[in-house]
């Protein structure tokens, strides 16, 4: 790929300085003055670029690699071509993430829609009762409602809507087109484009003339360092709060129902649906396109495989998968048995033809 005008290479950092920043070991200290300007995939990395490998499966990609450095575990050092300097790390994936953040700080948050403007655009609407600390940026066409409070360093993107009474902490990024209603956000929260936070949840009671709407009078509480992806929706609580715990990362196109409580440092991948009043512990990982039933508990440290249907409680630390979701060893055994039966039927069909 040619030079990217959206995220151009930076001036450069020496390998020696990069190694110190990452807590990595530079295998050949004589290469310490080489400059790293950018990151790239192994197969097409060129001079001035950094890449990483996690497995010997990458060996064939090294044949076309001319990076100025490769991050890897010591166990993989022997497969790196002699012309490429090596940065040794016991956690190369984490180290590469740190390097990317250092080289591309602007890519760590939603990009500003307007590069240069007054702190509060004259094309935005800010209610006179709203309190904005110094250093808050409000882009054109954003709407800030009555009694809103926003902390210093926060950016409100173009066309975003911040509803009455919402409180947003410091150094947050609310991207273009997002809406935040009936919610309190902590510090360093990132909300991507088009996310919907705090709309009423899906609650109805059957009546003689059809479905009767149940009022949704709770809030959404989003703690520090949470990131919520584009077009994700987080419903406010019915009478309690919907809570997203500190450090949790939520992908694009996720639906989180009313009264859901998600713990700290969880990872929830795209197209997951979590029904109302579910309780999710700390450090839970949920794979893409999974469906989580309401009023159940997923214990801390549990892992849910992609495209699973979770209908009951999941114990802490367990790995579940399948529809309905069950312990991973049972799921894999069932898959193996179904595959064996399918192969047997196919063989029998072939023998009779």
From TrEMBL:
Pathway assigned to this chain's UniProt record: Bacterial outer membrane biogenesis; LPS lipid A biosynthesis
Give the record's keywords alphabetically: Acyltransferase, Lipid A biosynthesis, Lipid biosynthesis, Lipid metabolism, Repeat, Transferase
Q: Which reaction does it catalyse?
A: a UDP-3-O-[(3R)-3-hydroxyacyl]-alpha-D-glucosamine + a (3R)-hydroxyacyl-[ACP] = a UDP-2-N,3-O-bis[(3R)-3-hydroxyacyl]-alpha-D-glucosamine + holo-[ACP] + H(+)
Top-level enzyme category: transferase
Cellular component terms, GO, for this chain's entry? membrane
**SUPFAM superfamilies (alphabetical):** Trimeric LpxA-like enzymes
Query: A Gene Ontology molecular-function term?
Result: N-acyltransferase activity
Query: Entry's Gene3D superfamilies?
Result: Hexapeptide repeat proteins (2.160.10.10), MurE/MurF, N-terminal domain (3.40.1390.10)
Pfam families per the UniProt record, alphabetical: Hexapep, Hexapep_2, LpxD
Protein's UniProt keywords contain Transferase:
yes
| Origin: domain of life | Bacteria
Looking up PROSITE patterns in the UniProt record yields: HEXAPEP_TRANSFERASES (PS00101)
EC number(s) of the enzyme?
2.3.1.191
Q: InterPro entries annotated for this entry? A: Hexapep, Hexapep_transf_CS, LpxD, Trimer_LpxA-like_sf, UDP_GlcNAc_AcTrfase_non-rep
Q: Where are the transmembrane segments?
A: none
Span of domain UDP-3-O-[3-hydroxymyristoyl] glucosamine N-acyltransferase non-repeat region: 35-100
| Similarity-based family | Belongs to the transferase hexapeptide repeat family. LpxD subfamily.
Q: What does this protein do?
A: Catalyzes the N-acylation of UDP-3-O-acylglucosamine using 3-hydroxyacyl-ACP as the acyl donor. Is involved in the biosynthesis of lipid A, a phosphorylated glycolipid that anchors the lipopolysaccharide to the outer membrane of the cell.
Q: What is this protein called?
A: UDP-3-O-acylglucosamine N-acyltransferase
Q: Which organism is it from?
A: Metarhizobium album
């Amino acid at each position: 790929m040619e030079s990217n005008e959206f995220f151009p290479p930076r001036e450069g950092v020496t390998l020696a300085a990069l190694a110190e920043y990452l807590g990595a070991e530079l295998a050949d200290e004589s290469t310490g003055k080489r400059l790293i300007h950018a990151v790239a995939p192994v197969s097409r990395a060129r001079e001035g670029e950094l890449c990483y490998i996690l497995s010997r499966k990458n060996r064939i990609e090294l044949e076309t690699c001319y990076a100025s450095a490769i991050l890897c575990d010591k166990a993989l050092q022997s497969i790196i071509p002699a012309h490429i300097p090596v940065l040794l790390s016991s956690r190369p994936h984490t180290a590469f993430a740190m390097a990317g953040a250092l080289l591309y700080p602007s890519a760590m948050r939603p990009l500003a829609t307007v590069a240069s403007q007054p702190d509060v655009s004259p094309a935005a609407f800010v209610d006179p009762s709203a309190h904005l600390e110094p250093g808050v940026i409000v882009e054109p066409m954003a709407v800030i409602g009555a009694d809103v409070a926003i902390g210093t360093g926060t950016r409100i993107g173009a066309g975003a809507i911040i509803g009455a009474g919402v409180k947003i902490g410091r150094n947050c990024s609310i991207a273009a087109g997002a809406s935040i209603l009936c919610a309190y956000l902590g510090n360093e929260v990132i909300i991507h484009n088009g996310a919907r936070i705090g709309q009423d949840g899906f609650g109805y009671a059957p009546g003689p003339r059809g479905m009767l709407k149940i009022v949704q009078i709770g809030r959404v509480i989003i703690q520090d360092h949470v990131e919520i992806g584009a077009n994700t929706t987080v419903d406010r609580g019915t009478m309690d709060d919907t809570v997203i715990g500190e450090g949790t990362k939520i992908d694009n196109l996720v639906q989180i129902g009313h009264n859901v409580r998600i713990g700290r440092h969880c990872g929830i991948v795209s197209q997951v649906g979590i029904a109302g009043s579910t309780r999710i512990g700390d450090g839970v990982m949920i794979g893409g396109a999974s469906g989580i039933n309401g009023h159940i508990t997923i214990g801390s440290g549990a892992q849910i495989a992609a495209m699973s249907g979770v209908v009951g409680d999941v114990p802490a630390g367990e790995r579940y998968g399948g529809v309905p979701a069950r312990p991973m060893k049972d799921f894999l055994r069932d898959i193996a048995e179904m595959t064996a039966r399918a192969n047997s039927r196919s063989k029998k069909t072939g023998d009779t033809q």
